[in-house]
């Protein structure tokens, strides 16, 4: 399996983030071509390419654009979801740091296609350096005539606002993001109506992930068939896989959809020396854990689903045998408890109790009955929570009990955690 660097092709170049660096690699050529074509043609190319949203759910991007009613006389909005906050997920932030212009170009093309004259990029509030970089790229694009009025003499106008969130995971949920953007407290909205009908300021709105929009210029340039030449039939194209944790060379690996973790580990130097794979997440902490038996599962939407998990954000967090699964799951659950927005009872109360129980298990004060209580709580959250944050909070718990029940029981019978917490750190053995 070969890597297919498209988005990341020029990341190693010192000026990749500047307009000059981007233009040296065909930057804004796709925009020039798009502006000579009818907007519907652009929607069709993206539909034909089979591009699926990279924010987690894998919804077809062209189809989403096609839902925007045309000729309705209302303003249309494009909102780029750059809130990236899920544990393990770390692709949009490096992408915006290394090549913010590919995002800006994608924003102009997507906005043109859906007939939008004001687009927003909602960036996670904590990453101030990334916000500055995106702001600088937007300013360069305005100065070069790629944004503003009468873009490249086409008659098409677009304003772009870069908005900094206040730093809440829930504001990555698209409807909470829209409330936050409107100045309200970020909490999910009831659907329907869906954002395509009544989104930002109650107008038709497309919300897309950074990587989804950044993939558009290459698709417009290369064509749908070129894009479909990579990946699998139902999950075409290239994508960023983010390897983290106990791997020799963690980082971003851009590969065709359908690559396996085994292949990605070969490319990244494998699990850290002297250790073996214990468990991993295919797409961030909200996707059920997988184990070494899943090393050859093709990392596309269908195959990962069939293996009992989800491709999610393709954040491959790798854990070796030194990791206590109870402790790892406790950490994630603490995150969900902290980030629960409090709107609905199953998630607000449930995540609190999940932490209490996992914490006492890890401290050796739990009982075997606690395992059933954990599963019962998860059963009462999954499918009953108002948004996917609650559902996601249950994934690490149910999947870890499925694969590592004995390890949970060992915490009960052994009166505490059998693992040395230092052994799983990067500095383990440094002072031996
Ligand atoms: C709790 C929660 C957090 C989310 N965070 C993000 C995020 O940071 N970035 C993102 O693109 N999508 C996030 N999503 C998914 C969005 O709701 C939405 O599906 C996505 O932005 C759509 O873009 P796409 O179709 O391009 O994937 C989150 C969803 C939930 C439930
Ligand atoms: S599931 Fe959690 S985050 Fe989502 S609305 Fe309910 S309380 Fe808020």
What are the salient characteristics of this protein?
432 residues, alpha/beta, four-stranded parallel sheet, 18 helices, 42% helix, binds flavin mononucleotide, binds iron/sulfur cluster
Question: Mind explaining what this structure looks like?
Answer:
This protein is globular. The mean pLDDT is 97. It is of the alpha/beta class and 432 residues long. The protein has helices at 19-23, 29-35, 39-49, 61-66, 92-98, 100-114, 128-143, 174-181, 195-198, 210-214, 216-222, 224-228, 261-267, 301-306, 325-339, 345-362, 369-381, 388-413; strands at residues 77-82, 118-123, 159-164, 205-209, 238-245, 251-256, 277-281, 290-291, 315-320. The protein is built from 18 helices and nine strands. Helix 15 (325-339) packs antiparallel against helix 18 (388-413).
DSSP helix fraction: 40-55%
Q: Provide the low-confidence segments as ranges.
A: none
- What's the overall average pLDDT, rounded? 97
Secondary structure tally: strands:
9
Radius of gyration: 22 Å
Bound compounds, please? flavin mononucleotide, iron/sulfur cluster
Largest sheet: 5 strands, mixed
Count of alpha/pi helices: 18
* Order of strands across the main sheet: 6-5-9-7-8
Structural class: alpha/beta
Q: What's the SSE pattern?
A: HHHHEHHEHEHHEHHHEEHEEHEHHHH
Q: Which overall shape is indicated by the principal axes computed on the Cα atoms?
A: globular
How far the N terminus sits from the C terminus, by CA atoms, comes to 39 Å
State which percent range the strand residues make up. 5-15%
